[in-house]
């Protein structure tokens, strides 16, 4: 056996690049772009880790995965043990390894980030998760003897799945009520196949079903069921309904045919096969056409790259700030550029115009950056007189989401914040209604998969406590 590398030797190793599908090939296909590390690549990359005494990467992880430990196990070739370490804190590693904004979390905090070559923690997490999945390793394995307690989970996104996963293993009966016809939340209807293959989400869900979680689809709480009805039939309820109501630009012409919210566009494509000729919910044919996407987050990148894959000849992302302020994952921005998507910064639409009800173009105001706003980012402001028009066949609005009021409007006793999100006790996920917990985007507003999952796990722990002792202190 070779002696372990010295710190100096480790620091000389280059960061291992993720193998990717060729940009031209992938722009015409929904197949996953990143191909995954080989065993050798994973080991080489893991060997770069300095095994810091106070690992900053762990501090940067929203759920505190023991990153230094799992990486050491990968370097030693103990992939099963590495998976167990990750699984203690993260139930969805194959998903998070693919979609977490690592550059702002673990990798951003890694000591090697100072030299712009942090350990590829996300790619290693994905490697471990994919390896054990391909070997048939089960993440959630045992269920304790039934407690007879019943828990309703509303919404099947990462928050709801995390709650269901933890509570079913503790022996409670769990039913997930989901408004759509497929479980998974944004993981299935928002994030496209080329970033997160649906088969991975389905495997996680099938594992929960095997343990006994019941999924009731097409169940819209607030319409087909009320919260009160669920409370009568269950000992606790978790609300994880996300923030699925799209924000609009609020400019003239937004109702023209050819203007979509990113939610509608992506849901129709991801979930309802809008590209098929006989689809009941098609989107306009974009083959050879021009598409503009407004926004700078992951949703904007997903919409633009989806339009490209559906044959659009010219796809432009228009963002009112600069690239520095863009919230999208850096990898998605790079991938989008490689696929031929053009970025137009410091522009804001003032009108969508058209004829006979059909979109024909967009009027744009040029912007500049002023003083930082409450988010800490510099506020865009109009450059007087700098207005132009750009012809386009399709426009997708991806400027953020708000909580959907449907469920909340039927629950007057549920305290809300001024942003329309559910008010909870942060440590426990308890709401103002006894027995009702909440977490994920419905509490934080649009955030990330790992934060939603972490909130779900925290709420699951406090649901256990509530089921055990029935004591309640409200939000
Ligand atoms: P959701 O995932 O939104 O799930 C909520 C579920 O509740 C949905 O299935 C919904 O149908 C259901 N529901 C809603 N109302 C009801 C009701 N009344 N009754 C029953 N069910 C209901 N995050 C990342 O970390 N990385 C990324 O790369 C990333 N990319 C994204 C791309 C897109 C296009 C979008 C939209 C978001 C992205 N996010 C990303 C954000 C991330 O997906 C969300 O933060 C996360 O999914 C929130 O999880 P959740 O469980 O709170 O809600
Ligand atoms: Fe390894 Fe970076 Fe974490 Fe240090 S901070 S233990 S180098 S991943």
Account of the protein in words:
It is built from 19 helices and 15 strands. With 475 residues, it is an alpha/beta fold. It has three domains: 7-134, Alpha-helical ferredoxin (Fumarate Reductase Iron-sulfur Protein, Chain B, domain 2, Orthogonal Bundle); 150-244 and 403-469, FAD/NAD(P)-binding domain; 246-401, FAD/NAD(P)-binding domain, CATH 3.50.50.60. The chain has a five-stranded parallel beta sheet with strand order 3-2-1-4-15, with helices on both faces. A five-stranded parallel beta sheet has the order 6-13-7-8-9. Helix 5 (67-75) runs antiparallel to helix 6 (79-89), helix 7 packs antiparallel against helix 9 (121-134) and helix 14 (262-272) packs across helix 15 (298-309). The longest helix has 21 residues, at 449-469. The mean pLDDT is 93. The structure holds flavin-adenine dinucleotide (FAD) and iron/sulfur cluster.
Largest sheet: 5 strands, parallel
Query: What is the number of helical segments per DSSP (H or I, 4+ residues)?
Result: 19
CATH architecture of the largest domain: 3-Layer(bba) Sandwich
Give the distance, in angstroms, between the N- and C-terminal Cα atoms.
57 Å
| Relative strand content | 15-25%
Mean pLDDT: 93
Q: Which fold does the CATH topology of the largest domain refer to?
A: FAD/NAD(P)-binding domain
The count of β-strands is 15
Helix residue percentage = 25-40%
Which structural class matches the secondary elements?
alpha/beta
